[in-house]
Each structure stands twice: as C-alpha cells, then as structure tokens.
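hiii so my PI (J.) wants the whole complex modelled not just the main chain, which honestly fair. so below is everything: two entries, each one labled with what it is. i double checked the lines twice but i was tired so who knows lol
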Amino acid sequence: MSSILGTLSENLATTVELAGPSIVRVEGRSRLPASGIVWSSDGVIVTANHALERDEGIGIGLPNGASTQASLAGRDPTTDIAVLRVQVTGLAKATWAEHMTLRVGHIVLALGRPGRTVQATIGVVSALGDAWRTAVGGRIDRYVQTDVTMCPGFSGGPLVSGAGQFAGMNSTALNRGAPVAIPHATIGRVVEAILAHGRVKRGYLGIGTYPVRLQGATAQQAKQETGLLVNSVEPGSPADIGGLLLGDIVIALEKQPVRFPNELLASLGGERVGKAVQVTVVRGGQVRDLSVIIGERP
Amino acid sequence: MPAILDALNNELAKTVNQAEHGLVHIQSGSGFGSGTIVHPDGLIVTNAHVIGGGVKEVSLPDGSRVEARILADDRYYDLAALSAPASGLTPIALGDSDRLRSGQFLFAIGNPWGVPGAATAGVYIGKRREVRLDGGPAREWLAAGIHVRPGHSGGPLVDAEGRLVGINTMMAGLDVGLAVPVAAVKRFLKEAFGV
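here's the output for the full assembly
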C-alpha cells in the first residue's frame, strides 16, 4: 500500500488502535453509556459530567473487555468534568499533546467507547482561542472547537491529534452542542482539586436575581440595557455583609458588565473566594459601588 | 497547496472516479436510488427498499438506459439483485467488511437527491448491531461518518483502495451513514445464486 490515501487511512486506523487502551466505557446513565479517559495508571478516570446521571453504581468497561465498578471522586459541572476511581492498576495512562501544538486545519479524531470497541470519527480543528468561561462559570484554559461528529456515547472521550496524542476531552454540553475539547490543563486543575477536596471551589454571593431592563437614564449611565434585580439576599451571606439590598440592580462586578445571570455566575470563579470585589449596583436610580468579600459556595 | 495535499486530492478523485464506474442510477416505481455493479455482465446489487415499486429503468455508467430484471430480493437484510442487459461493465472489487478498522477512510458514492455520482467521505466508526429480543438473526450495519442522503441507497461504500465494503442503506442522523456490510452481500448472492 504505497498511495498517500491508503497510508493515511491505515495510519488513522493505527492511531485509533494505539489510543484505545486509554479509553474506557462509562455506564452512569439510563441511556447509552458514555466514554472516559484513563488519567492515571492507578485508576483515576475522567469523563463528561453531563453523561453521568448518577453518583453510585457506575460501571466501567475496561479496554481489555473486563468490567468493574467506579466510585465518584467528584464532579465539576462548570467545566463538565467528573472524576472517577477504579480499583485497578496498570492501566494505560493517556499520552497528552503539548499545550498549543494544535493548529486550525489539523486533522483530528474523536474517539469513544460506548460499546465494547473503540469507535472513531474524523474532523479538523475549526477554531482555537484563548481561555474562556462556560455559561455556568467554569474556566476552560483554551478554546478548541472541531467539526468532528459526536456520536452518541462519545462525550467524555478524547480528541486525538494526528500524532496520536490526546488533545482534550470532547464535550457537547458546553457550547450549544458544538463539539469543544476541554484541554489537559483544565482537566489537570479540576482533577487535582477534586482529588484533594472532593470538589472545585466556586465563589458565592448569596443573592437571588433575575434580569431586568434598565430605565432610559440609568441605562445611559450604566452603558448597558439590562442588569440583575436582587430579589433575595440570604441573611449573613457575603452579599448581606457587603450591604446588598433587596431591589438593588447589579450591573457590574469588578467593572465587568453583569447583564444576565450567566455573566454573574461566570464572574464567581474559585480564585475570587476570600477576595474583596467591587459590586456596582443601581439603587434608587443612582449608580453606586459596594465592596463585597466573596465567599465559597457551600 | 503543499505537494502532499495536492497528491492526496488527486488520489481521492481517482478513488471516487474508479468507484463511479461501478455505480448505476435506478428509477423505480416509488422513486430513485443507486445500484452497485458486481459483475461485468450486468449483475447489480441494491437495497430492497430502492426497488419497492418495481424497477422502471437503470442508467448505466456510460449513460445508456436499460430495463432491468429483479433476480432476488431479501427485505430483511434490505438487499436485492438485478440483472441488466449489458456486458463489459466495470464491477467494483469486493473487499472485506470484517477487517475494517475504526478510523479508516471510507467513501460513499451514489445519486443523492438524484445528483449522479456524488461522493461523500468520512471514516469508519464501527459496527452497529441490532438488538433483537425475539431471538431472530440480528442484523449488522457499518457506521461511517459520512453524509448519506436519500438516493444514496444501494450505492457502493468503498475503502481507500476502492474495494467494496458495504452498500449504503440509511442515515443515522445527519452525520452518520449506515451500510449493509459486504459480508452480508456475499452471503445474499451465494444464497440466491449459489456462487
């Protein structure tokens, strides 16, 4: 087989076979199983949080065909990562691509193990970008969008580069169904936090809000059309201590506009816990700044 | 364009062009579809659902239109064999669907929405097995990341070497196509003709 096409085709199939030992089946929902990636040879497995509907009775299909049970070490819905543990050693730990080796246009494979064998689809890297925040506030270290077809059960499986290295964990839950890959750096951070504390730190204010349209003069002053009306303040919460009142309209946090609930969530990353931040509100038609020390979400 | 991409494109076009010589267009009583030439003397394989209303006309690769006879059909495996009065056709060499590996390139050739000889490419995803509760023989499909559309049915699914690995049969969502494995086609032909 000397043609470029034939060689390419064989290389792709070989890449799939070589990646297979680091991909497991994750049975954690009533529908079709999802996929998971072997994070460490001593039994840490990462998967997509949205594909794990239960916390107990999670089954794992190992690459050698055996089945075992996993315990849930923790989950981070904001980055769609869940961390599992199996009592198995000698697993084939995934080989990860160096940060920033992907380029737009690269051929990539999406792999999954919804059944007994590894399955594959192909695509190209569609877009790359800087760190971004998911709609529910998780920080993803790099934006990696591809046009791979995500077959049922592919969530939690790897995006694999032409060099056969894992370039991220595929998820369709973060970007309106478009496949994005969660990079190694993000998974590493979440795994570390979950293995150490069982969870990922998130900032907390202690208010309930809903978006409202700002009045003409206020909108002009605030330079935005909507804000978040505070309709509850938990007694003793960071917001309460910081002086937020029922009826305030939150319009910014550290001068970053807050127009919709997801923008508020996005601004409450774990790195802000314990820090004083400037919360800008409209109160009685006047814009004013309050200082609130962000707490940790219980 | 880098030389290797240019060379790859030429090979892709060659593979598709070669497979198009083994593709026919079928006009049936109920619509249209594709067919795959498996013997120079006019033996054509298609899906049983393509010839639902009987075969009206078959367009051969040289453009000639002929009447064809239905020799055998199997609704369960969705396969049918036709005989067209022709000789010297270019059949597609039969490959081995049991040796496919996930990630391998595959090409579906057909007449989607009546567009003759259209190609779509992707990689082999894996086998899809039907779950049967009644104990009957479970059917098996090849799943590929290809854009199969109405009119592709009955046409060839070929590998990078241009060998027939399946008969395009249906869509499973917009981005996944299912094909009857060539192993089932071989069985079907053997049962029908003892060859």
